[in-house]
Task: structure prediction
Amino acid sequence: MDIYRLEAGVAPLLISLPHDGSHIPDEIAARMRPSARRSPDTDWHVARLYEPLAQALGASLLRPLASRYVIDLNRPADGHALYPGRRETGLVSTIGFDGEPLYVAADGEPDAAEVQRRVNGYWRPYHEALQQELARLKARHGRVVLWEGHSIRSMVPMLFDGRLPDLNLGTADGASCSPALRRRLRSVLEGQEAYSFVVDGRFKGGYITRHYGRPDDGIEAVQLELAQCNYMDEASFAWDEAKATQLRRTIEPLLRACLA
Result:
């Protein structure tokens, strides 16, 4: 099975969708609970949401095929916590966003050797592709913006209280992109009325945003976490074309702000 798919563009913009994949190999799925085999914590349909925008803007698009339950590509390879002190899923998680076990029995959970195999087989190839594409675009343009596209159910009690804002922009508190880009993106959000939003709230940016965002070196990184109710049915995972079309009208100017 291919590890990832890369559609190389010409603009200085790379859209990375590290949680778009939902495939779980049979040898892993056989040890998992039936509910986990559906990979419910997938960032459902984000590639479908972003593909027309990437094509229109000439942006590159990178996405994996495997589920975050196989390995979370937006976590550091050494497995250290992104939000110390908070309950969260991990690099190779054994619980879902509902706090329930993913595996039928504890002895079916991956051991250290299996975790390392998954790092080598899935994590490293994706990050190598990410690094190479960033280097290619930077060499061509002198600068590049990495856009981390994510989505999540609007209510996940294990991770946050209440309902998540519709649009959650993360810049690692301004460290992963230039002040100018952060201002342009905030201005776009403030100029629309269709969606609630927050900048550097609960989702400030995961490992990829924090690690690759080096604005002084010409690589800026931004994460957008979407509440899934704005483009799909959260219970059935069904795509909602009308909602998605409306949401793209707000995402597009955000992406264009990255190219300004």
